[in-house]
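Narrative of accomplishments. A recurring question from our advisory board has been how the design workflow behaves on a single, concrete structure rather than in aggregate. To address it, we present the structure tokens for one chain from the evaluation set, followed by the sequence designed for it. No filtering or post-editing was applied between the two.
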């Protein structure tokens, strides 16, 4: 079970985040002593830290620097300030991601899963995904179907990998965009639509016309 430490001085927000993330089978606690944050990090030994920027005594940037002296644990900053300077400062201080208040808890969970997946994915896992005869090669970002092979762009590959990973389930648009954000190429909602449209055209060339289904207002799925 992955452990998450929430460093957020608004007790209500901290409690709501903790309760929601526990539903995803994470072990979650939140800091109550903001003078001794580093001590709690060492004692709890979390796999992920959710760190607010504005805190009592010292801000989140300070604590991120202190944590980075002893640990490479993934850190996601939380802030009500959306300006680029705060985001840049967070990344420069050693943060791994950034989420702006107020945020949807589903988006928070998607970001948490993505960050944990990046940090703790195991080597040597099976390097293909298969669904209804379509085989996605995770090593070279190609799709094979009925002896035909298709080269995918980086974004097309990431979209298809996620949809095939959760085949038969709707994947929210926000979670797909988060997967595309992993290398700092920020993608908005319209850009996602363009990428999916291009991917569908390529899939049609292989005879997979209805491989990706749109669930209006929810997201996409393969079924």
């Amino acid at each position: 079970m992955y452990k998450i430490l929430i460093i957020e001085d608004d007790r209500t927000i901290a409690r709501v985040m903790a309760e929601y993330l526990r539903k995803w089978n994470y072990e979650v606690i939140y800091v109550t002593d903001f003078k001794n944050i580093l001590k709690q990090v060492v004692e709890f030994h979390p796999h992920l830290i959710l760190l607010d920027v504005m805190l009592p005594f010292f801000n989140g940037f300070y604590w991120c620097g202190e944590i980075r002296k002893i640990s490479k644990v993934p850190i996601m900053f939380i802030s009500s300030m959306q300006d680029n300077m705060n985001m840049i400062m967070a990344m420069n201080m050693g943060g791994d991601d950034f989420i702006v208040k107020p945020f949807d808890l589903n988006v928070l969970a998607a970001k948490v899963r993505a960050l944990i997946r990046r940090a703790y994915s195991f080597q040597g896992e099976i390097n293909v995904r298969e669904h209804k005869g379509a085989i996605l090669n995770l090593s070279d970002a190609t799709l094979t179907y009925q002896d035909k092979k298709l080269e995918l762009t980086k974004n097309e590959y990431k979209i298809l990998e996620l949809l095939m990973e959760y085949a038969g389930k709707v994947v929210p648009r926000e979670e797909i965009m988060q997967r595309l954000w992993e290398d700092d190429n920020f993608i908005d909602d319209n850009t996602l639509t363009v990428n999916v449209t291009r991917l569908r055209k390529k899939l049609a060339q292989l005879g997979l016309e209805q491989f990706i289904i749109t669930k209006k207002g929810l997201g996409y799925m393969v079924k």
